[in-house]
Amino acid sequence: MKTGTLLINGISRRFGQTVALDNLYVEIGAGELVALLGPSGCGKTTALRIVAGLERTDSGSIHLQSKDVTQVPAHQRNMGMVFQSYSLFPNLTAVENVAFGLRMRKVSRSSRLKKADELLELVGLDHHSQRYPHQLSGGQQQRVALARALAVEPEILLLDEPLSALDAQVRTNLREEIRRLQLSLGTTTLFVTHDQEEAMAISDRVGVMNQGKLEQIDTPDTLYNHPTTAFVASFVGTMNKIPTKLSDGVVDIFGKKIPVLKTGDHNGDVVALIRPESISVTSLSGSSNATVLTRSFLGASSRVTCATSDGTIIQSLTNSSESGELYPGAAVWLEVLNKEVLVSNA
Amino acid sequence: MAAIIKRKSITLPVALALAGLLVFLPFGSATEFSFRSFSDDGKMHHSLSPYRWILAQPEFLSHLLLSFKLAAFAVLITLLLMVPTVAWLHLKAQSWRPLIEILTILPLVIPVVALSIGAQAAFPSWLQSSEYELSFMYVILSMPFSFRILDIGMQAIPLKTITEAARGLGANWPKVIIYVIAPVISGAVAGAFFLTFALSLGEFTLTSLLHWDTFPTWVTSVSQQNIIGAIALSVFSLAAAFALLLTIGFFTSRARKQSEEAE
Amino acid sequence: MTTQFQASNKGVPRQGGTFIRRNLLIAAPLIPLIAYLAIFFFWPMLVVLLESFKNNNKEWSLINFTTIIRNPYNLAFRNSITLGLISALTASIPGAIFAYVIELRGSPKLKKIIASLSGVLANTGGVPLAFMFIAAFGAQGSAIVLLKHLGIDLYSGGFSLFSFSGIVVVYMYFQIPLMVIVFSPAVHGVRREWRDAAKNLGATPLKFWRAIALPLLFPSFAASFLLLFASGFAAYATARAMTVGNIALVPLVIGTLVDGNVQINQANVGKSLAIGMVVISALAMVPYLMIQKRARKWQQ
């Protein structure tokens, strides 16, 4: 399958007073799956619709294979798009839906139906090809929508929250399947979602967006372990927010002095951002700085929630084999394992 | 996210201008006409006298009041009859809904003229000698609409779940109806209320064929002696009806908003 | 009118006698409504039906029906059917286009105003509309007078508001709003996702129309058209206010019979005319049901 690189070159969009997109710049390599992640209203869907040509951009440009397609109308862009839900044409059967793009390209009836059948088989729905959309479950509908988007052999695949209307189990299965298909076909893919777990699970790189701006774009691993902004840190994964004081690039957490990651800003009251797995909970020593509130068993690890003496609630992820004595009410000692921490304004 | 694509397009302005012109032509003309009066030498000028003439007619107020009275009675019957029935259809009698749906749409298919003949042939004389006969029939004529407004209104809210929740919390049926069902369906009820009211106020065919004289039929009889007066009355009643229906629009959209929030 | 039958038969176990007893018990609160319809709707219609088959001596007879298939009644039926068809045709197409433009481009506020205005004109417009047209296009009407000042004399050109074409024009003023009311929900049902998806898959707006929007909207359009036909065919108020008895229309003929203004040989001719109207209105529903059946396979 032919596939291409995509360049989103500084696009901006306003709707009346609200700024939906502010100078968004993203480069996507051939065969890569990049997710745009962010809370609703952050502009990620607008960005996707601008790429598809369904929405215009106020400034900037879209380049496909280094060709400027900003002025190309949507129906000539050769991009496959999967929508959130209900996008299948209700008056066409599953196979006719998949064949629709080829029909618009004037492919002969027999060859387009053959191609559509192949794609339905690829998404595991070849036995439902004669059904109408309302006869299919939500998950099956989205599979058909995926097959329909891929049938035109798009240079780029655009996924607009394709899983958000589905049940949790179906969602997990389908996202793995999307990734499997994407890898085997090698289709360059831009994926928009508000679900961080979803984005982290299947993407090569994730761009976190907030209020129309791209905060950080990196591999899931880097994003989780080395967030560059406080927004990214708290949006991706769980973060403890511990109030403390910053002076000369160092904060004091549980009596331990730790250097701050991006210094130079605000001295005074700040909030330190610490992952649960970077906090150790021990009940061995005599002294204590917190009390256990609850402990939930998650399998190999357990989540221990504690309250410090000043009332801050702290979550910690602990090896289940070592958490035996951390019953509610136990006096414990909390310690931060980070060598440096990220802080945000209090 | 929910931003609407706003391309620059002339279709909407063109359509609105065209429709506006077509609507304005008779409305503007009628408004101009309704201010016409003639001096003794036969010269025409504009004045408020047609409207003054209307107000001077004792029939104006008496017919208006009669129409209001009959419409109010029709609304009362409609609400008493339809609200509990539709609520029950949604709560317990789901399987009967298609039947009721078909029965209530029939008055839309049967010509009103035919129904008038039937009423005249079938009803006993004591019923035909009472003007409330009309209210009973207005209920039938508005039923296709009142049923649907209530039906859609109740479809949008999980009536069954909230009723069961209230029952589970110890409310008895009267309390359920007063404190739970009534507030959540108030938008749909208001919609049915205003629609039945408007339809009853403007009903002409049945009223005239059953030989009653309400406000709309009076307007027609006025036209035989004073066409300008009849036109002034028409301007007045269409303007009033528009105001009334804008109110309906307000209530039903509020109901829709409520139900969307409830989803 | 779109009727929704989905989710209607769910949750009712079929268990012979207990099923029937249970269902009847559940139906008990529906009795007031059904009884009301029986008294004020079905009974009168039944009386009309039965009496239409009786002659002046109250004997069973077809004489009323043999009377109404001859003139002047035959002509009245042909006029009314023609008026129904022409007013439906002239109103459904502009009404549908207007509804489409408003749904697609209008703001919510504009849609609400259009809906209210349409409601006024369609439901209560009849008599007032007729007088407004007399004000505009009658011999002394404002528009006519204005045009005369501009040197155009419509009346010398053969136009008359009180002719068949005049009535069609006036009917359009409540038929187009009726079309907007009944057709808008269908247009609203064409989701933006379908338009976007079609564009994305390479369809021009025209191709989207031919392949998706038209097949989706056709059943609703046909249903609306037939409703408009029934409305134009049966309309009484406007015709009564407009005509001076120069055009025979079935509702007007029935009206004069009811008023007792004319002497006729058969007392029950009015009832057979009423049944004739019911039959024609019912026949208009047949094509609707056929179209619905075809569309049902992809409807939920």
Task: Kindly describe this structure.
The complex is a heterotrimer of chains A (346), B (263) and C (300). By secondary structure, chain A is α+β, with helices and mostly antiparallel strands. Chain A is 25% helix and 35% strand. In chain A, the strands form four sheets. Chain A has a six-stranded mixed sheet with strand order 6-7-8-3-9-10, sandwiched between helices. A five-stranded antiparallel sheet of chain A has the order 13-12-11-14-20. Chain A is elongated and about 80 Å long. The termini of chain A are far apart. The mean pLDDT of chain A is 88. Chain B has 263 residues and is mainly alpha-helical. Chain B has helices at 11-34, 49-56, 58-91, 97-109, 112-122, 125-128, 132-155, 159-168, 173-184, 186-202, 205-209, 215-225, 227-262, and strands at residues 36-38, 44-46. A two-stranded antiparallel ribbon of chain B has the order 1-2. In chain B, strand 1 (36-38) and strand 2 (44-46) form a beta hairpin. The model of chain B is unreliable at 1-7 (pLDDT under 50). Chain C has helices at residues 16-27, 31-51, 63-68, 73-105, 108-124, 126-137, 142-149, 164-188, 192-200, 205-234, 237-242, 250-259, 269-296. The radius of gyration of chain C is 24 Å and the shape is flat. The relative contact order of chain C is 0.13. The chains are: A alpha+beta (346), B mainly alpha (263), C mainly alpha (300). Chains B and C meet through helix 1, helix 3, helix 4, helix 5 and helix 7 of B and helix 1, helix 2, helix 4, helix 5 and helix 6 of C.
